Here is the input.
Amino acid sequence: MELYILRHVEAGQRSSQPRDGIRPLTSAGKAEILQIAKALKVIGLKFDLVVTSPLKRAYDTAMIVSDIFNIGNRLQVWKELSPEGQRTDIYRKISLLKEEYAVLIVGHQPLLGDMVNDMIHKAKSSPCNLLLKKGGVVRLRLLSKNNIPRGELRWLLSPRILKNISKKNLK
Here is the structure.
């Protein structure tokens, strides 16, 4: 399974919304994810499924990517991807997905970074403490989907690199 992990882009200030879960993307965040999604398409990615946190900023990020990739009804909301979600519950759901799928997961830090750490490190004593920037994307090749999925880190692209790819291909 090819697993892509995307952190949501810039959202409104916490103080401007009474509840964290309803913070929308900023105008800059919407423009940024549009560029990032186009770059992902330019480099030849395809997704069989997009799964997202139910929080508005992640959901809106996933929707923009889904629109660019014409995902249609292949978008799922997993409550387990909310910031207080449990990784073991996410891993259980991943284990149920088809092996041949390319899946994009959209969510939040530190949950996403912790998931990547779990999947690429066998020993808990040597975590890499991955900090995934807003709009950053990780590609993993999952080799097993046991209790904790295990895999190889194929690449990590920052939002800056992705936006540069998008800009170069719009010229």
Remarks:
- The two ends are 34 Å apart (CA to CA).
- DSSP finds five helices and six strands in the chain.
- The mean pLDDT is 90.
- Residues 27-42 form the longest helix (16 residues).
